[in-house]
Amino acid sequence: MTDQHAGRGAREDAGATDGPLADLLVRTGRFFTRRETSADLRADFRTGGREGDVFYRDRWSHDKVVRSTHGVNCTGSCSWKVYVKDGIITWETQQTDYPSVGPDSPEYEPRGCPRGAAFSWYTYSPTRIRHPYARGVLVEMYREAKQRLGDPVLAWADVVGDPERRRRYQLARGKGGHVRVTWAEAVEMVAAAHVHTIRAHGPDRIAGFSPIPAMSMVSHAAGSRFIELVGGAMTSFYDWYADLPVASPQVFGDQTDVPESGDWWNASYLLMWGSNVPVTRTPDAHWMAEARYKGQKVVVISPDYADNTKFADTWLPAQPGTDGALAMAMGHVILTEFFVRRRVPFFVDYVQRYTDLPFLVTLSERDGAYVPGKFLTAADLGDDSEGAAWKTVLIDGRTGTPVVPNGSLGFRYTDSGAGRWNLELGDVAPQLTLMDGESAEVLLPRFDALDGSGGVLRRGVPTRRVGGRLVTTVFDLMLAQYGVHRGGLPGTWPSGYDDAAEPCTPAWQQAITSVPAEQVVRIARELATNSEESGGKTMILMGAGICQWFHGDATYRAVLSLLLLTGAMGRNGGGWAHYVGQEKCRPVTGWATMAMATDWQRPPRQMIGTAYWYTHTDQWRYDGYRADALTSPLAEGHLAGMHTIDTLALSARLGWMPSYPQFDRNPLDVADEAVAAGTDIGEYVAGRLRDGELRFAIDDPDAPENWPRCLTLWRANLLGSSAKGDEYFLKHLLGTHNNLLAEQTPPDRRPRDVAWRDEEPPKGKLDMLLALDFRMTSSTLLADVVLPAATWYEKHDLNTTDMHPFVHAFTPAIDPPFETRTDFDAFHAIGRRFSELAGPHLGVRKDLVAVPLQHDTPGETAQPGGRVLDWRAGGVEPVPGRTMPNFVVVERDFGAVADKMAALGPLVDRLGVSTKAVTYHPDQEVSALAAQNGVMLGGAGDGRPAVDTDAKMAEAILALSATTNGRLAVQGFRQLERRTGTHLVDLAEGNEEKRISFADTQARPVPVVTSPEWSGSETGGRRYASFTVNVERSKPWHTLTGRMHFLLDHDWMHEFGETLPVFRAPLDMQRMFGETRPGDRGADGTSVTVRYLTPHSKWSIHSEYQDNLFMLSLSRGGPVVWMSQADADAIGVEDNDWVEAVNRNGVLVVRAVVSHRMPPGTVFVYHAQERVVNVPKSEATGRRGGIHNSATRILVKPTHVIGGYAQLSFAFNYLGPTGNQRDEITVIRRRGQEVEF
Amino acid sequence: MKVMAQMGMVMNLDKCIGCHTCSVTCKQAWTNRGGVEYVWFNNVETRPGQGYPRRYQDQERWKGGWVRNRRGRLSLKAGGRFRKLLTIFANPVLPNIRDYYEPWTYDYEVLTDAPLGDDFPAARPKSLLSGQPMDVEWSANWDDDLGGAPEHGPRDPIVERLRRESEEKVKFSFEQAFMFYLPRICEHCLNPSCVASCPSGAMYKRAEDGIVLVDQDQCRGWRMCVTGCPYKKVYFNHRTGKAEKCTFCYPRVEVGLPTVCSETCVGRLRYIGLFLYDADRVAAAASVADEKDLYAAQLDLLLDPHDPEVLAAARREGIPEDWLDAARRSPVYKLAKEYRVALPLHPEFRTMPMVWYVPPLSPVVDRLSETGHDGEDSGNLFGAIDALRIPIEYLAELFTAGDPAPVDAVLRKLAAMRSFMRDVTLGRELDDAVPAAVGMDVEQIMEMYRLLAIAKYDERYVIPTAHEGRAHELEELGCSLDVDGGPGMVAGSGPFGEASGRPAPVSVETFHALRDRQTTEGIADPERPGARIDLLNWDGRGRPDGLFPPRKESNR
Question: Which residue intervals are annotated with compositional bias (Basic and acidic residues) in the record (chain B) (predicted)?
């Protein structure tokens, strides 16, 4: 050591490299260069003289850095630094200035992902839409007609009124031929089409589609406001995407409310179940990775060796779609070991207070045994006071008598319920089981047969007679359902965990999921033990992998049950964490007011997306099965003989779900007739409907008068991404070429009620498809008019998420380049031209709006007991708002639409703004906005606060929401306290002065205020977790019992055998559609039938970025299918070979990625690979291959259209049929390797 | 002792989610320009897998790094400098473009411009080198997430080596699947073989912080550095004809900002800080006989920043006080030397790499998890380490020249930390035996937990700022007309071809190229003068006309 201190000189001769000759050479070099060579001649060091590297310094320099983010698709809500040099956007990196989570926790910095990091590529990319375009053939015809007729509206009417000309431009859709037009001409065509549609067909023939408003509220609201003001319908997206877990409204009475990712940190046991966090929650994944170091155990349940499996301690590779069986078996273990063999006080106390387990359920006799009926209510006990039919009953364990505890729906809207809508039990000790009394055999359904058909279980429950009815508790039914035997009860029970024949044992699930029974027992035990020890800090991250199935709601209920039973809901570090398509528009009240234009007129038209597309793309005409094909063997036959579209028609006429277009004629004319009749308008319309003089459009969807006519897409790529059954869209909605191979429904399975027209369904229902985008997509290719949109780095907007508690801003880094415009400016241009044309052509009209019975309104108490009473079948009167929709007349001044768009309307002050039955009165805020934004002068908005720029609208959204305005939060909690009678206002108190301004959000992400708009608390800087307010403050859930529900007693839930959590297998596509079975190798052995899954991609956020050169360079350069080695071998496929996937729905041409991380029998075609990049023509049809959704289609589950009954009532994006797509299968074969483009 | 300061990085692979954000932000900031389309200063590769460029770890083929010769001295694997000079015009051993990947784009315009036809327009891939339609057959990240692994995985050099010992070692089957991600940047080695390879003296290691750079003015494009680097982290810009490489974002680091790849790492797994090392002992350390001793030798070079003797020696070398303070707070020193959980990548290349890695945990194999075999339960804490899916031998081949002991020790430390912290989290009685079993005390394991788990920004990145203000040196050189496409620029450049004449200031050229690319309505036209396509698609065989200066007889 010491001689090494001697320094360089001493080591001159001790060269370390090569040999003496080389040493000499290097030493010589040192005389000529200004640098220092290490003594041993290995390395050259240099100080100074680095002009050659100025290049990198120069490259790093920039003129400014602007805060912005990405405004749709992704729910990550990451704040970014956008670098600008010389007026050009150069690149982006993540912001790191999120407010701290606290000293003992990781932070949110740096949120982002590779997709977001590649966004700026779009700014100047060759796929950027730089100018307005329109379909060439249409433009020619329009110009000709306009020249001839001198009026845009008449010209449009002339073109679309001529079947031959209409057909010509429809057939040209998607095939190139766009021509550049001016903004003025594009906007005029759009405006004319809308005016003509309203006049000729009705405003409800107009629709808009734009998803996920939280990610760019202003851009969403700008268009939605236009659609709603003209009377069009906004179609929902959350349910359509199948991201909505229907189990959430079913169990919680809430849309979806989940913890921010920072709360994962607080969990000590974490299951990732069908949620591939590193890929789909990239910016949040670190919380999981880091929490492991805190001792969190991680379990991953995924069919493949997914990206998150890497982080697991234990991996359960369950077969796709069988997760429900796994969850039921875990429930079996937990109920057995923690409720029966040992009663864990923590769990028992929790389920007594916060779940429906102690509530009484009637039993009805069936075949010598019993089946569960309805919740016992106060009305059953002879109470005839208000709300009695909505007050559920339990047994007080201390007195043994039935009591009606506070908190059920009967206390929510009634005068007598004021101050009693809470979960306070007083002295009551809810009794979970009736175990000491009589018992009865109950029949329960099972659906574990390979083909998904039902069977019947005979098990027993303890019973008692209450109010003359035989009842049991939900808990007792649960034990029967889960096969947890207690001595003395009748029925057939599993002999033990190893009994594979009886549901729901660990051995039973092994045969279904292929996960070893011992492993399931161990994980269930660990989960419950962790909950017990940690006070409920068990969390399940769940997502698309288990949600997007036809029976995803059943699976979710089985999984949620594990959390409800172990006291994990409403806890920091515990509960469910559903992450797919979830968003949290934190300033929801302000956004909804702007987007639905409820500041000017109410109610808005809101449509369930899945039903809309199912109906209008004629997918219903290709159903291979009847609605009752999937019902329980214990069903009473409510759906016998019905086709799925019959269930939609019934749902519409009973006021359950919305349905637009609503009637078989223009609602403007219906309104006129109703007014002219001089009677009560509701009564008039109900009478016409009863007489059959007026019909619901859904009763005959293929009649031309019932078609949708104008569709606007913005912030959306419906036809390249979410369009389940894309080829059906092409064929029937758009009327262009397609790869649809399906057969129509055979005559014996056709609808009972809905009209079946002609042999060929209509082609080309839409007159006008308008798309606004910044890049060329499948949707813009199909659009008749394409408007060039500003990107997310070129506008003002707002962004929030449920992944973190902050609201932050978009700020333009540059002005919209080329001819692009912000969505806000584009819709205002359309609105202005529309108003100019509509003034003379339409004037002021009355519009009759049919609205369903809505959740979080008294409308949800319209149909007691969840009994299906169809007025059309007789026996019950059609009464608006009770047995059918409400009918409301809205006056529309069509010439004033543009004025109204630009001003905050008067209903905000007059009626207030409501969210979840809490109404806020933002009187001070309206004055403040008038002062800050200025007021509009002249026209309909005269004197009203201006919202005529994107920044001003952002300001209005923030001002009108309780999360961003402490004064409103306090006001809202005070109001809620009057209903609950409990103390809540302290959650927001002290924030009265806190008003988050748009400038605040531009400076730095700002944490929101705790507000009644959501169910969790951020008070005191704690992490947001859903339902903590319910658990800690005894605030009821928005359900029938006011508690979380295991049991759903609506008639149709019984029909489907889903009264209680149950395993329902993936749909059997052979039984339903005659497809070959998975594993089938085809006659000639060149093909294999496989499960067709479309999980979210690593290289895109839906269809965005899948065309981005950076992402393509990091992946395979185009659409691919991931398949197992076994499946590839079976058909002779090697990695990167071209293959074709063909089923009745369509054709895909993709390259194969062969990997051993895939399980045999299942392929992945990552979500939203569209047809714009590297997609050749198919061998099967000779036409361009499709998008990932060309091989899928819509399958509507009738239980999703239940309404008018407590938590099973409609609200926009809260409840509706899901556009599930995971049950599909496809045939894959190797194709010729020479491809043609 | 000659104390020098070295900027180092640690990446915790146990936290890496394989998202590639680092790659994209790096590429956006540094290499999204002509000539370096195929270049990723930062890349992330799925292991097992071939990496980028393909099989770069196979030095029998690529001849990177150093070897210890018969005399016990270090010699460049590709041959000494003298031989290099003699063979300077011969073909160096270089990966060809297919070993990286042929960069491509698409004819996106067709989506907008296609005339009315009878089918959907679709953009097809076109080579960025030739402009011709091409089949995409390899990319910067082809085997991501084990894509194509059954076919390509067996060619992973590490898998090959392990299988030479036993066919059973790494199976590409569903039941035995494992993977992890390896993000890579330039190693900024203490003993950089790229620098030693450069015949022009264009490469150097900065004296103050050890960052290895290419002088863009001096570089003559001999590409010996590409061969010399065993990590293949020096790239050839076929447009400027110069070598380029990861700069450790020195324009950022000099002002105290972390590198782009680090700051944008959403897994929060990167750490930047200083090492103090003894420059006098580097050669000896790199020359130890047994490869398996290289990790220990490298660790031994790192000097204790708390040691007064070291500090005195550092002050003698003029290392400023705030740098010494940063060295004391250095997270990379803590992880590599104090906790010994970070390991060097391929120490057997003898370059003394300064990017260190914490190896990853992985799930236990299924048959063991049936019966219970998890690390959090201190009862079977270390049994789980033997049951992890990632074979320790695989990690050892990456980080410790095949010696499994150090890898095993790291994984045990991580497991012990988790187990101990679970007790803390659940409020249980704490068991000192758990940290003791891995040679740590409670305080140490809590500190390590804090650094690995909580990992606050200012604890991940401890970066002293540079002291020399040299704004006057930052002025642009050269004539403003000498820009790409301007009158000063001629395709093929100087009188003696590519490498002759005064170098064009690449910053000017590239800035305008960037601007041109970002504002043009069309894509780059390979036919356009200046859009040279020569060197990148040259496979190293033959001498196409005009590609190189004419050979002088005397150089033969």
Answer: 517-531, 540-556
